[in-house]
Amino acid sequence: MATIMEKESLIDLIAYATSIVALRMENSEQYEELMDFLAEKRHWTYATPHEEIDLDSEVKPLQEMIKKYKALPLLPQFQKNA
User: Fold this and answer.
1) Residue 79 maps to a domain
2) Which end of the chain, N or C, is surrounded by fewer C-beta atoms within 10 Å?
3) How far is residue 10 CA from its own chain's centroid?
4) Which domain of life, per UniProt (predicted)?
């Protein structure tokens, strides 16, 4: 069971994961699958009452995804010019 604020934090975490993937992955089948997964997760989170959200089981896979893709370099178009 999550509080309203925890639900908001989950929505923020989904948005952060989406940005991490978008900045580091080329457009590919894997990219599309990840973005579809994150869009579905966002939709589910908005549609589900906060009392029905198991925060731990929702946050852990997102944190793992963020850790995995944050280790990748930014795509060239998002790197600072030297």
Assistant:
1) no
2) C
3) 9
4) Bacteria
